[in-house]
Amino acid sequence: MSDEELAYLKSFGAHLYNLRKQNNISRVQLAFEIETNEKHLRLIEKGEISTGLSNLYKISKALNISMQELFDFEV
C-alpha cells in the first residue's frame, strides 16, 4: 500500500472516530449496528484496515449522516 493510501486510511479512521464520538455512540454499539465486531471497527478507526462499501453505508446509517458527510475530511 502506498504512503498516500495509508494517509487516506488514517485520516478516514480519525474522521470516523470523531463522528462516532460526536454522536455519543460507543465502538461496541456501532460495531453491533454495522454487524461487525469491536476489534474490526477499532482497526478501521486506527486506519490499519479498509472496509467495503456495504459497511460504509451501514456506518452512515448508524450515525444518521450521509455518505457525503462520511467522506468529508482532509487527508
Kindly list the characteristics that best describe this protein.
75 residues, mainly alpha, 434 Repressor (Amino-terminal Domain), 65% helix, 0% strand, globular, DNA binding, Transcriptional regulator, XRE family
Task: Describe what this molecule looks like in 3D.
- By secondary structure, the protein is mainly α.
- It has one domain: 434 Repressor (Amino-terminal Domain) (Orthogonal Bundle).
- It is 65% helix and 0% strand.
- It has five helices and no strands.
- It has helices at residues 3-22, 27-33, 38-45, 53-62, 67-70.
- It is globular.
- The protein starts with a helix and ends in a 5-residue tail after the last helix.
SSE topology sketch:
Layout: H1 3-22, H2 27-33, H3 38-45, H4 53-62, H5 67-70
Helix pairs in contact: 2-3
Summary, kept brief:
The protein is mainly alpha-helical and 75 residues long. It has five helices and no strands. The mean pLDDT is 97.
Main structural class: mainly alpha
**Mean of residue pLDDT values:** 97
Q: What general form does the structure show?
A: globular
Query: How many DSSP E strands?
Result: 0
Q: Give the amount of beta strand, in percent.
A: under 5%
**CATH topology type:** 434 Repressor (Amino-terminal Domain)
Radius of gyration: 11 Å
The CATH H-level superfamily is lambda repressor-like DNA-binding domains
- What series of H and E elements makes up the topology? HHHHH
Instruction: Tell me the number of structural domains.
Output: 1
Count the DSSP helices: 5
Main sheet specs: none
Low-confidence stretches: none
